[in-house]
TrEMBL record:
The species this protein was found in: Geotalea uraniireducens (strain Rf4) (Geobacter uraniireducens)
GO terms for MF: DNA binding
Tagged with keyword Lipid biosynthesis: no
Domain HTH cro/C1-type: 44-97
Record protein name field: Transcriptional regulator, XRE family
Domain of life: Bacteria
Amino acid sequence: MRLSEKELLERDAKRNIGEELLQAVRDIKAGRVGRVSTIDVSPLAAARLKIGLSQSEFAHLLGVSLRTLQEWEQGRRTPSGAAKSLITIAIKKPEVLKELLAA
């Protein structure tokens, strides 16, 4: 049941928002409350992060646009050709690309 504007104002007038926030922080720190979120990272993004490159840098290395790399990482598009080969290397042997960048 939705509260009317008047009921909301009456309820909120009785609250101590500051104390509620402090208590929430205490609860989170104590591990009593909180939500844990996990994020699935694509193998391509994981390889890029392992190499230590930003999306812009990695896109440049692969010779594609930033947008194309983002779509690959998000699974909206699939790479082909030479980019697919480089990505396979990046996923399986990221240290090889790291060596190439250092040279």
